[in-house]
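Could you join me in thinking about how sequence relates to backbone shape in a protein? We need material for that, and I hope you will provide a protein of your own picking. Label the sequence line and the structure token line clearly, so we can match residues to local backbone shapes. Would you write everything just below, so we can both look at the same thing?
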Amino acid sequence: PRSLIERRADAENNFWARIARVIMRRPAVFALGTAALLLLLASPVLDLELGPGSNKGIPQELESIRGLNVLAEAVGEGATAPTDIVVDTGRPGGASDPALRAALAALQRGLRADPEVGAVRFGRGPDSVDATGRYLHLQAIGRHEYGLPESLRFVDRLRGEIVPGAGFPSGTGVYTGGGPPSGVDFLDLTYGAFPWLVLAVLVLTYFLLMRAFRSLLLPLKAIVLNLLSIGAAYGLLVVVFKWGAGDAAGLISFDQIEGWIPVMLFAMLFGLSMDYEVFLVSRMREEWDAGRSNEEAVALGLAKTGSIVTAAGLVMFAAFMGFVAGSIVGLQQFGFGLAAAILIDVTIVRALLVPSAMKLFGRWNWWLPGSIAKVIRVPASPLAQRGQAALRPSGR
């Protein structure tokens, strides 16, 4: 039987170790090349258009959708989810106030003049004026479905121009709801909070990884690389679904990416990618602490974890592609984004960009000043932590 030493030598010179050493011979070329590729893949995100969802993203052969389409053809797409406008005059009988009636007439003129409005519903029955005469209800019937860009832009004009321009008396409340305004509010609320969520996740991740890796630089590197892979996934969503590159594969082209998808992609992909990062870099840290040079620590860490990380990534890739096989556009977009990001992460990022970047950073990868180490209660990791460490060149 082969000795343990022979088996260990084979493990330390396997495919992943050889790849890492080849990459680290020209780290700047690989780092700049792969980073440029990821930025190129992410660049279509500038054309990203979000939407709250649409019935057009559901299989059109379903009986319920066929019935909805018949109704839309008969009365217009916007009739199935119109915009509701409620006017609160502030007092019983306020609906008969002359100034209020003049403003209401101006509102209806503004609505009918808008290119997106096909009809305005308002009468004298209980569905338009309540029994107390305080509240009034109008409906604006759009020409497009509630989630499409034309409907969303109409809501902006309604709230920003049409209602203010009607000149309602002081103390009157005008509220907009229904299909299109609900979609606009969903996107506004979601993406008003999303940047703060991302910032909180990044800050918390940095401090947790700083303690785990005992390094100031490695957590920052991990965050940047994860954001690059997520950005590339966002860009590919635009290319495949909005630009129609996925038509040949049977994917449904749609101008909008459903609003929930980028948020969920970030949450899932950041966690999965960071999981792979911790697994990989922790092994490298062990090799460094055992006395290896920076280059050998990186190569051996990749050698001992590359197969496991890649296998786990491929399993996740296959699982997420199951969403793509469906016929609902939102699930196709979600599954494709997850699968693309995982594939990018376990190939381009972990196999190419991580070793090249860590080679360039040299011993600075492992630096944690004593003052910070004391605060977070871990051993310090100075640049000259071992006898020969201070003599090593920065790339080793």
User: Anything to note?
Assistant: Residues 63-183 form a domain with the Alpha-Beta Plaits fold (CATH 3.30.70.1430). The first strand starts at residue 50 and ends at 51. The chain has two domains: 4-47+214-391, 63-183. The beta strands are 50-51, 83-88, 117-121, 135-142, 173-178, 257-258.
